[in-house]
Amino acid sequence: MLYDIFVDPFVQMYQMPDFFLQVLWEGFVAGILYALIALGFVLIFKASGVFNFAQGIMVVFAGLTLVGLHENGVPAFLALILTIGVMGVLAYGIERVVMRPLVNQPDIILLMATIGLTYFLIGFGELIFGGEPKRMITEELGLPTGSTAFEFGERGLVILQHIDIAAAVIAILMVTALGIFFNKTRIGRALRAVADDHQAALSVGISLNQIWAIVWFAAGLVALATGIMWGARSDVSFALEIIAFKALPVLILGGFTSIPGAIIGGLIIGFGEKIAELYWGGLVGGGIESWFAYIIALIFLLFRPQGLFGEKIIERV
Amino acid sequence: MFYREAGQFKTSYEKDQALFPIRQDKIGLGVILLIAFVVIPLTANDFFLASIMIPFLVFSLAAIGLNVLTGFCGQLSLGTGAFMGVGAYAAYKLTTIFPDVNVILLVLTSGIFSAIVGAIFGLPSLRIKGLYLAVTTLAAQFFLEWCFIRIGWLYNYNASGAIEIPTREMLGVVISGAEATPLARYFVVLSITVVIAFLISNVLRGRIGRSWMMIRDMDIAAELMGIRPLQTKLMAFAVSSYICGVAGAMMVFFWLNAAEPSSYSITLSFQILFMVILGGLGSVGGAFMGAAFIWILPIVLRAIPSMLGVDIGAETVEHLAFMVIGALIIFFLIVEPHGFARLWQIAKQKLRVWPFPY
């Protein structure tokens, strides 16, 4: 038993390095997608202190809008632009109807409001686009498909899907773009000011409402990118919503307010989950992917509650 | 005018601190109990009992359980569904092992297992709170759900992976299993709910309940005044999980007859949390109102189109119901973040001063 837990998995890793690399790659891709979802959470949490449970459903909604528009005869790129427009309208609507009247309410009320929003978007999305899974329009958007197999050593192969590589590249580009946006532009600086101190930001003439609409829009764009990437791997369906909960442990690891933290947290969770599932999962009957991330987060909470990159303002008891 | 406590004098501290110090409240409660125990069983049909009243009572009890933790002790939990599941599976195993013991006794005992599990997952609450605590309870939710699926012993290695409730009798009446009449189930569920609600109301206004509220309002001050956070918080977790566990066991024994692990998923946790928030954090009566709203509203919404004679598909109605519920939740959070309990208080105040504005 002890051998199975502590020795055997490592022996396997050593004996089949190609399989191990494949697992690592899978973990990397899953991690990127968790990181993208967590990124959406972080953007909104930084600017307004709202923990946005609806991020998961926004991913589904963005993906469905894109595919739905294309199915109705809109060319792929026009559909993409229209979807961006829809996310903008959604962001403005959420800010106006939900967030603005709820300013200064306790955290839990805001959290519940975003869950209410989730219900609304589920109903709305299913009403318009139907409940069944849809195929993402990968080729039409000009994203690469297919895969490359790398020979590894004498006997092994590592297979990389092109769409996964594209996902990684897009994620890196997006984080860089967000980083530049936050540090170099006027609106980005205003966003950081709001994140630091709402009242001080107001007093130097930054419009909170405008900033909130912008971050919700940015989160919507991140959701759209996530939706395309995730949809290309599996179909666009409401089952994706459950993935949003994975963003919570990612945020615990990375810290609630850190963009690099979201990325690194996502990768740690992605790697950890896949490796644990494939090498240790068999010992307890498999399927440990569903809770492994939370256990990592739990252990992490005990030692470093502010996360890897978070600010040290956690409330201790 | 309609609701005045003028002339009702209290001559001792005990009377002043009574559960229902005002005569109108006592009468009102008596009327509600009379309706619940006599009028509804006499008049209602099986559908009303089985698909509205029984689930409503089960959810009310679960909402009371979560309210103890979130409303009174201030600890956010997203694992209610799993704690209910622990109760259900524990009761199922108990009735398999002890087939001759009264099933109500087993349902009440199963809550103890749920309480133990809840207290274990409550341990991190000593270091963290708020959203961080929500993550640990999410861990409980997903981990326990996984256990319900993977550990065959819990469901007696059924091929279906679901637990099916055997027929059990009490005093010669079948009260659980497929043959039980809705009326018998209704009485069992109603009695358990009323008794637990009454007991917990008394706990909440006593020393234990007040120490929970002190922790909720300001933990550091509470600690300085001699409240031990460790015992107090773990007790809140245990009591809350006990009630949720009993509710979960009742859910499968007296309502669903069979349950899969997905019956106790995160969706259920959210549903219960909604009931607590919309009903009003920190109010036992609010839990009932919240449960009624969240459970009965979708049923009403689904019935509306056919009543109006509009012919739209069942799926469309389902989606519309989802939208309306989401929108209403946001609406109520905006209009009254303190829930129906506060609305009820405002209504009482209005009744008190009517016909004058104040």
TrEMBL record, chain A:
Where does the protein end up?
Answer: Cell membrane
Q: Output the Gene Ontology terms for molecular function.
A: transmembrane transporter activity
Q: Name one Pfam family in it.
A: BPD_transp_2
Q: How does it sit in the membrane?
A: Multi-pass membrane protein
What keyword terms does UniProt attach to this protein?
A: Amino-acid transport, Cell membrane, Membrane, Transmembrane, Transmembrane helix, Transport
- Report one GO cellular component: plasma membrane
Keyword Membrane listed? The answer is: yes
Q: Which residues cross the membrane?
A: 20-43, 50-70, 76-94, 106-129, 159-182, 211-230, 250-271, 278-303
Instruction: Determine the domain of life of the protein's source.
Output: Bacteria
State the Gene Ontology BP annotations.
Answer: amino acid transport
Question: Record's InterPro entries?
Answer: ABC_transp_permease, BCAA_transport_permease
Say if the entry is tagged with keyword Ion transport.
Answer: no
Q: What is its main location?
A: membrane
The chain's coiled-coil residues are none
Q: Which family does it belong to?
A: Belongs to the binding-protein-dependent transport system permease family. LivHM subfamily.
Entries under PANTHER family matching the protein: ABC TRANSPORTER PERMEASE PROTEIN (PTHR11795:SF451), BRANCHED-CHAIN AMINO ACID TRANSPORT SYSTEM PERMEASE PROTEIN LIVH (PTHR11795)
Protein known as = Amino acid/amide ABC transporter membrane protein 1 (HAAT family)
Source organism per entry reads: Roseibium hamelinense
TrEMBL record, chain B:
Record GO cellular component, one term: plasma membrane
Classify the protein's membrane topology as the record does.
Multi-pass membrane protein
- TM ranges are 27-44, 50-69, 76-92, 104-123, 130-153, 183-204, 234-256, 262-281, 288-308, 320-341
Instruction: Give the molecular function GO annotations.
Output: branched-chain amino acid transmembrane transporter activity
The UniProt keyword set, sorted, is:
Cell membrane, Membrane, Transmembrane, Transmembrane helix
Question: Where does this protein reside within or beyond the cell?
Answer: Cell membrane
Q: Which InterPro entries match?
A: ABC_transp_permease (IPR001851), LivM-like (IPR043428)
Pfam families (alphabetical): BPD_transp_2 (PF02653)
Coiled-coil annotation: which residues?
Answer: none
Name the source's superkingdom: Bacteria
Name by which UniProt lists this protein: Amino acid/amide ABC transporter membrane protein 2 (HAAT family)
